[in-house]
């Protein structure tokens, strides 16, 4: 059997941390090979070794049956290995064409020749249906097109081995379908594809075989056709995982939060970030805001939580019958808001404070925790220990461990513990499962549903459509700072949401008003 | 360390037993417990690597100072190179401050403003701000205190208190301006405090020349204002013929208050939170602007208090109209650094710097320049910077080893997870 790529017994350590421990990866010619693993499983390290960014401590690499040394990305290029990084490596102020040829320019009479590459790129883009605008600047084109530019960059360099690192994270369902079609075409032509992902259903859809890594170790390689999603998940996590969130019917009651005509401009006041946003969240329901990253969700959360001031006169945010549009953040907390922020290290925790200090960071001024301006440390530590036990937050020194020293999952658990334990009836959770592994995601979802069943109003912002479909009782879809649709998760499909997310469909504005 | 600990235990028990042998058994028991508690606390503090680091750094500083002295030391009579003289000079630096009760008293006397300026820098640092403006705050605080001392007529304790308050308020105003600029316009406080130093220098230069307060014979601001001098409370009988007054007690008390604020109060919690993470504290509903301004004002007020302690004594520093920035703000940075900004540590580092300075004065008899102390102090600071760096290196290594062990253990037991 001929393999296009063989990475044999690769070991790579960073100090005491073993990122790759005796990993073997064999990719056949013309196959789509997925690499599956949680965060920190060693996927990126392995690919960085293949791409020449790191050097392996042990093991060797064979390309098309020949032993090779890959010392830097240029070697990888020469071996016709190309990679689309999760975060694109494009020059924002260059045109599409300039970006594609960058580093492999054709020179004519000492000047850069753009016509020859333009022809070649046109040919390539027509052949694979990769629509691009060669003369647009990168900063002006959509994320989907940026990805196509990255793919064309590889093709322009005649790459035969294509690596895709989490390619679907930034795409709508429709764009994902388009991408998968292109990937399948590549495979048919005999190119070898490596697809790095942690999304199981995508693997099921496109991949031929799948190599699973867990905590830097090689777990196994399976034929995707014969393995079920549950089996793959078990291999990835090491235990049984439940994918569906167990929850009963929602009984929405009175309106807790209502947002009316929320408008927000960007800093230079040239572009609206939020346009006439109006919606309600009721007690006992989970409302999810779906959308592609950068369509105003972050700004919406910042406006509701008070992190950015609202300077528009028509905008109104009412929480528990109190107008909080211009209230301070502390005031909002006292009115019944709880907030699980998007960036847990920047906002959620004060990294140099210990657990106990963090557990009271937005309620230390309350009489339970202070008297005459002096903190009651016994009470604070008792309270923290209680939360640690109840929410199973693990850390080396318990209440005394610095937030900085805790793992991401436990940091998130600590924040959830704090936010769901303080007095509140409205919880805003911004990407609560971002960067967490499957087990922790299960935990967070369960907590959110528990919150709902206690009769609290929940607003969740999520970029993951699976999550939106799973936990929400009502879905709002945002596109370019506006709400494009309000949907019932039981009656809609991922594809339909995708159309609204990309802005290609929009619910009738008048209908929306009636619903309100 | 073990020996010392055993020794301490023995003596403390002995003292406690002695009290027990008195008829008041209960009191004896209580005292025994108290002594044991205090002893344990002291040992715990002494055992901290931070303290050990500081001691090593001080030794290194003295060693480098000694090497410099070796190079320049000469016989005072003949002018010949005389290495033996360097040893005598070093001994003067080490013992000079404690030779007599008088010099010891003066060490404490001079330490008070140093401690307070150190607190000013250290407090700002703990709340995430670099107060380079200690000098400027000190100068305006000083001139404000002197104006009140010279121009206001009031009975004794009240006049003194008012003069001190004037210094505090002036210093606080000088801290308020950079705080305001930082909070609302995000102007870096390092730059603004340095600029405020220059403004303070010229402002106080003009104010000191004013005929209202200027004394032509002294060529400085008048220093005779009987009702506004710092009281002595009989400390001068403890340290005869020295200049000591209650300023050292005020400085120590202030350090304890600052420690208490930072450690135990909601105010300290807020200010430190803002220092650690502006975004994180904003999210938690802490008013970032208020905190920054308040921090800078407290820092300025401390420097202003230092100035009052410096210019109000019976035999004070003279406030002369010169266009030179008072270097005490930079001494304050050194003092805060040596103590790693711990308010209680600053008491000791302030006294240490004062002690070395006093020693340097006696060293001049042997023909050494007193500026050698500046070399000693700088080396101490460098050493402390390096030692904390080396300390973290060791710590990291230990943590790595621990992690490795943990990984191996996990490997052994990992079927689940």
Describe the 3D structure.
The complex is a heterodimer of chains A (516) and B (417). Chain A is an alpha/beta fold. Chain A has 3 domains: 3-237, Rossmann fold (3-Layer(aba) Sandwich), CATH 3.40.50; 252-336 and 424-516, 3-Layer(aba) Sandwich (Rossmann fold), CATH 3.40.50; 345-423, no CATH class. Helix content of chain A is 34%, strand content 26%. In chain A, the strands form 6 sheets. Chain A has a 6-stranded mixed β-sheet with strand order 6-9-10-3-11-12, with helices on both faces. In chain A, a hairpin with a 2-residue loop joins strand 11 and strand 12 (217-223). The N and C termini of chain A lie far apart (63 Å). By secondary structure, chain B is an all-alpha fold. Chain B contains 16 helices and 2 strands. Chain B has a two-stranded antiparallel ribbon. In chain B, a hairpin with a 4-residue loop joins strand 1 and strand 2 (220-221). In chain B, helix 3 runs antiparallel to helix 16, helix 5 (101-126) crosses helix 15 and helix 6 runs parallel beside helix 8. Chain B is globular, with a radius of gyration of 25 Å. The interface between A and B is medium-sized, with 35 and 27 residues.
């Amino acid at each position: 059997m001929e393999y296009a790529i063989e990475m044999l017994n690769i070991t790579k350590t960073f100090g005491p941390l073993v990122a790759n421990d005796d990993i073997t990866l064999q990719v056949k010619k013309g196959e789509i090979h997925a690499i599956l693993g949680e965060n920190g499983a060693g996927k990126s390290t392995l690919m960085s070794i293949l791409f020449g960014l790191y050097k392996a401590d042990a093991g060797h690499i064979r390309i098309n049956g020949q032993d090779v040394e890959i010392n830097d990305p240029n070697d990888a290029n020469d071996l016709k290995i190309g990679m689309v990084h999760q975060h694109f490596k494009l020059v924002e102020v260059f045109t599409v064409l300039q970006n594609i040829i960058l580093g492999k320019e054709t020179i004519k009479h000492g000047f850069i020749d753009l016509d020859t590459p333009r022809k070649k790129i046109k040919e390539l883009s027509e052949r694979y249906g990769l629509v691009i605008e060669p003369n647009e600047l990168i900063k002006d084109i959509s994320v989907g097109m940026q990805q196509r530019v990255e793919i064309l960059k590889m093709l322009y360099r005649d790459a035969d081995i294509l690596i895709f690192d989490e390619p679907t994270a930034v795409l709508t369902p429709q764009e994902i379908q388009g991408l998968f079609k292109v990937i399948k075409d590549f495979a048919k032509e005999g190119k070898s594809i490596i697809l790095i992902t942690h999304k199981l259903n995508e693997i099921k859809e496109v991949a031929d075989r799948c190599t699973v890594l867990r905590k830097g170790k090689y777990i196994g390689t399976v034929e995707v056709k014969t393995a079920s999603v549950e089996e793959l998940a078990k291999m990835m996590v090491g235990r049984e995982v439940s994918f569906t969130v167990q929850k009963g019917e929602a009984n929405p009651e009175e309106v807790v939060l209502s947002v009316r005509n929320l408008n927000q401009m960007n800093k230079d006041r040239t572009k609206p970030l939020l346009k006439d946003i109006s919606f309600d969240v009721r007690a006992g329901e989970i409302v999810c805001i779906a959308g592609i990253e950068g369509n105003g969700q972050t700004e919406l959360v910042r406006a509701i939580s008070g992190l950015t001031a609202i300077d528009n006169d028509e905008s109104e945010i009412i929480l528990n019958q109190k107008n909080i549009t211009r209230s301070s953040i502390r005031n909002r907390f006292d009115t019944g808001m709880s907030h699980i922020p998007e960036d847990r290290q920047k906002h959620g925790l004060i990294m140099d404070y210990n657990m106990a200090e963090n557990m009271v960071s937005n309620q230390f001024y309350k009489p339970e925790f202070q008297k005459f301006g002096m903190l009651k440390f016994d009470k604070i530590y008792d309270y923290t220990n209680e939360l640690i036990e109840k929410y199973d937050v693990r850390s080396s020194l318990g209440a005394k461990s610095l937030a900085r020293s805790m793992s991401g999952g436990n940091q998130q658990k600590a924040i959830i513990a704090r936010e769901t334990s303080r007095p509140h009836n409205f919880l805003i959770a911004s990407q609560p499962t971002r960067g967490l592994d499957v087990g922790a995601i299960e935990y967070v979802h369960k907590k959110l549903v528990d919150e709902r069943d206690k009769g609290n109003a929940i607003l969740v912002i999520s970029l993951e459509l699976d999550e939106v479909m799973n936990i929400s009782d009502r879905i709002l879809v945002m596109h370019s700072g506006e709400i494009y649709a309000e949907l019932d998760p039981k009656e809609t499909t991922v594809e339909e949401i995708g159309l609204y997310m990309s802005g290609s469909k929009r619910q009738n504005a008048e209908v929306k008003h009636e619903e309100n | 360390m073990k020996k010392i600990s055993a020794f301490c235990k023995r003596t403390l028990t002995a003292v406690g037993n002695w009290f027990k042998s008195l008829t008041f058994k209960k009191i004896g028991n209580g005292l025994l417990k108290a002594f044991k508690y205090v002893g344990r606390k002291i040992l715990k503090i002494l055992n901290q690597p931070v303290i050990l680091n500081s001691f090593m750094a001080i030794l290194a500083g003295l060693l480098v100072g000694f090497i410099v002295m070796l190079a320049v030391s000469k016989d005072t009579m003949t002018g010949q190179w005389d290495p033996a003289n360097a040893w005598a000079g070093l001994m003067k630096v080490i013992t000079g401050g404690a030779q007599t009760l008088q010099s010891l008293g003066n060490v404490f006397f001079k330490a008070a403003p140093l401690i307070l300026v150190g607190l000013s820098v250290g407090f700002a640092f703990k709340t995430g701000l670099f107060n380079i403006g200690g000098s400027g705050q000190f100068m305006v605080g000083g001139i404000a205190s002197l104006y009140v001392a010279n121009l206001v007529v009031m009975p004794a304790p009240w006049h003194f208190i008012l003069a001190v308050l004037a210094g505090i308020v002036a210093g606080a105003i000088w801290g308020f301006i950079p705080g305001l600029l930082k909070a609302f316009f995000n102007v870096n406080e390092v730059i603004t405090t340095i600029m405020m130093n220059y403004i303070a220098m010229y402002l106080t230069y003009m104010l000191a020349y004013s005929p209202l307060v200027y004394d032509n014979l002294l060529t400085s601001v008048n220093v005779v204002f009987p009702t506004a001098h710092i009281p002595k409370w009989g400390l001068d009988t403890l340290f005869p013929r020295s200049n000591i007054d209650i300023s050292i007690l005020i400085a120590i008390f202030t350090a304890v208050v600052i420690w208490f604020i930072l450690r135990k109060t909601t105010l300290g919690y807020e200010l430190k939170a803002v220092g650690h993470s502006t975004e994180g504290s904003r999210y938690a509903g802490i008013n970032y602007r208020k905190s920054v301004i308040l921090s800078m004002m407290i820092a300025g007020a401390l420097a202003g208090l230092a100035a009052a302690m410096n210019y109000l004594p019976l035999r004070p520093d003279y406030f002369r109209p010169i266009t030179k920035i008072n270097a005490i703000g930079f001494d304050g940075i050194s003092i805060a650094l040596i103590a790693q900004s711990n308010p209680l540590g600053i008491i000791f580092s302030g006294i240490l710097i004062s002690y070395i300075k006093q020693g340097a004065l006696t060293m001049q008899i042997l023909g050494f320049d007193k500026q050698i102390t500046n070399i000693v102090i700088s080396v101490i600071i460098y050493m402390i910077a390096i030692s904390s760096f080396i300390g973290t290196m060791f710590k990291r290594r230990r943590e790595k080893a621990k992690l490795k062990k943990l990984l191996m253990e996990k490997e052994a037991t990992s079927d689940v997870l």
